Amino acid sequence: MVLSTLHTNDALGAIPRLLDMKVEPFLLSSTLNGVLAQRLVRRICPHCKTEEVIDEETRQDVVNEVKKIYDFVSDETKKLFDSTVLSDGEKNRRFYAGKGCARCGDTGYQGRVSISEMLDVNDEVRELIAGKKDIHYDAELLKKQKFITVKQDGIIRALQGVTSFEEVLRVMSD
User: Is 77 exposed, middle or buried (0-12, 13-18, 19+ CB in 10 A)?
Assistant: First the structure.
């Protein structure tokens, strides 16, 4: 088994990147087993963690992302979605942030945590690779794989209070 790193924006971007590097599609489709993409986000300081309210436009962006993955997340995550962004009232706009304290050097953050996405290279994906088709646009395939993007994983972490929504957006814009 060979593990390697590759610089791409997401897991799906690894396949065209490898093809651009002149890896033959038949070779790539027969040897690639999976692709993991990850980003590190700052963890909210537990000593100065406070609630913050996001604006309605941002909440709607979060709701749109949550609806894409709602059917295949765990029951625990569904309950989290239902009790926050999918509920009625101001509660559905609450996220967390660190206000800054002596323990975190007034940054509001302490440590880091990974947000990630994983593409399972199954037979359907192998066929797409061999045919040089772009997986980014195959929504049904991604739904079958229960594919959660880095941004969606970051939203889940923000709703859990692990990181801030602002931090997820900052990292995703890099």
Answer: middle
